[in-house]
Specification:
Shape: globular
Helix content: under 10%
Strand content: over 45%
Order of helices and strands: EEEEEEEEEEEEEEEHEHEHEEEEEEE
Number of strands: 24
Number of helices: 3
Largest sheet: 18 strands, antiparallel
Distance between the termini: 36 Å
Amino acid sequence: MVHRVPIGTTMRFFKYFNFNPSLSYNEVWYPNQLEWSLSGSRGKNGFRPVDTLNQFSRSYWYNTNASVTTRIYGTFYIKRLGIEAIRHQLIPTIGVSYQPDFSEAQYGSFTTFRDSSNRMQVFSRYNGYMMGSAPRGAQGNINYSLSNTFEMKVKSKTDTVKKFAKVSLFESIGISGSYNLLADSFNLSNIIISARTNLFKNMINFSFNGSIDPYSYRFDSLTRRGVVVQKRMKQLEASKIDLTKFTGSFGNLVNANFNLNLTLNPEMFKPAATQKAQSDAEKEMSKLAKMYPDRYVDFKLPWTFRTMYTLNYNKIGFQKENVIQTMQFGGDLRLTDKWKVAFTSNFDIVKGEFSYTTFNIFRDLHCWQLNIMWIPFGPNQMYTIDLNVKSTILKDLKLNKRRADYLDNVQ
């Protein structure tokens, strides 16, 4: 049994500042508890379960947080080329959070052993449990974030009442991170950078997420330990250095994700004044089609075409950088008011080959939707038949029939 109790509120002070205190309490109940022992089949310094105690056990943890945020607005008047002004909204947030070290004996979630070198080892009693247990390590963080939005005010060509219209340039550009006051070294967390926007009536969608590590890894070729670490291409925690102090660098990009989506349908090419107002049911269906394009389609649209470019980058420590680039494209076509067909294909740019291609048949059953998906070729040949409820509240209520031919060869 899992218990989660979040408590929070918002209070305003000095008119322009919001104070947000919160407390989160978590507790997990288990009907049994594993007894662990040092050594055994995993090696001289390994841990293994030796007994299962059929008794009630519990693990709990909590953390507190408090933050202050405000909003700062700036307007830059241009009045050229049909552009009236550009508006900038800046949302800075600063906060503190605290979490005790739940590996201490008083909390009962961890146990301690001395290995063959007489070094103290700490191990979770609930290692491998599905619902997990209390985290290890004290956290006393100073958290920060800075979010930006940019809008453009342009002259309206269709609305004679409202002479100006708002156009979103960037929905969000942000940076965030933290500093752990209780850590004995490497107090800075990774610096997270993100950006996203939608352009031309949601025709183009762009998003980026990246993580910058302010620390690097130093290799000492004179030590045998360093040689082993380099050959195995692993991180050497003891060799981390602060780039801001030793090299003046801002940090190393350790991972990044870039997505660029293009969506086309007939509604996008119609003037705003001629577009029909959607009912609540139609709005819900459009929302589902955007959130789950592989499970739902909008039957009101005669056709839709989508393409997406994705770039993933990872590089940590001495590891070789890993770059994955894929191009996904597909679409759907309405045959009748109740039937639609669709396809999706993926191309791996790095390997120069297609990863998989799927074909779908959709049938509108009023409150339900039937979806038949087929992968006709490739290593993962299979088909599925799904019957889904259209309502977003009951989106997980469905019936499935699946067959995967590639599993027939698995011994």
